[in-house]
User: Which sequence fits this backbone?
């Protein structure tokens, strides 16, 4: 028995965490065992690495070392959480995954593509997402949302990067979607959350064959 693996990707404040929770709720309403998780983090050891990375502890070592640290966290997360959940038939919905390494450390951070691909080959191996939803939003809008939510707290490692970095990220995610259309779907994230939720639900139902599972049940039909 194997479950389904769905990842959500995109820039800061695109609404990934919001939509991960909403998608899980709708799947659970259909009786599906839906597990939500995130990267970096998702397992106790990976969460410890998350704290270090987002506090900027890896930054002085350079982008290659950061890519290795994200990959180390991913390795533990895959081993302890994602693969066991998929093996028991659960649907795993993950807030960021390997595409974030490609975009942040690869395209925007200038780590060579063959290094990123090598790390992915070793760590991700066969556990590739069945579906990746790329929430696309102008970085100015996403950063404003992230700033409004943060209030007085300081920026983390990546929120403090220049706008040009965030624009490069957006291009990188769109490029990934263009190269892998069977896995990736771009969702316009410049809409109210309810509308994005509906768009995501249509894609999930269509791509992962939910029609047979009484799609109407979530609306009480
Ligand atoms: N990173 C990396 O470099 N390499 C890697 O391999 C991986 C990650 C895996 C993780 O930080 C950082 O690690 C990330 C990339 C890097 N960079 N940063 N910073 P994180 O998990 O703390 O941050 P994030 O992933 O960017 O998430 P976020 O900023 O929390 O954004 P979000 O999850 O996409 O959005 P949200 O939390 O759902 O919503 C943000 C706010 O907007 C919130 O107040 C919502 O209520 C609001 N919101 C949500 N949707 C809407 C709509 N539709 N309209 C208006 N307002 C909305």
Assistant:
């Amino acid at each position: 028995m194997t479950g389904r693996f769905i990842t959500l990707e995109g820039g800061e404040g695109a609404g990934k965490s919001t939509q991960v929770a909403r998608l899980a709720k709708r799947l659970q309403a259909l009786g599906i065992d839906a597990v939500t998780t995130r990267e970096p983090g998702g397992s106790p050891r990976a969460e410890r690495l998350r704290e270090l990375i987002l506090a900027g502890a890896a930054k002085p070592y350079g982008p290659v070392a950061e890519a290795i640290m994200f990959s180390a966290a991913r390795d533990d997360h895959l081993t302890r959480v994602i693969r066991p959940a998929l093996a028991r038939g659960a649907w795993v919905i993950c807030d960021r995954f390997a595409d974030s390494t490609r975009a942040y450390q690869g395209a925007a951070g200038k780590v060579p593509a063959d290094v990123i691909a090598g790390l992915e080959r070793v760590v991700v191996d066969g556990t590739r997402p069945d579906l990746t939803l790329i929430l696309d939003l102008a970085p100015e809008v996403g950063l404003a949302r992230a700033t409004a939510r943060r209030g007085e707290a300081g920026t983390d490692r990546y929120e403090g990067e220049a706008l040009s970095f965030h624009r490069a990220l957006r291009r990188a995610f769109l490029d990934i979607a263009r190269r892998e259309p069977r896995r990736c779907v771009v969702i316009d994230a410049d809409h109210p959350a309810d509308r994005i939720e509906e768009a995501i639900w249509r894609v999930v139902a269509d791509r992962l064959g939910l029609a047979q599972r009484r799609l109407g049940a979530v609306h009480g039909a």
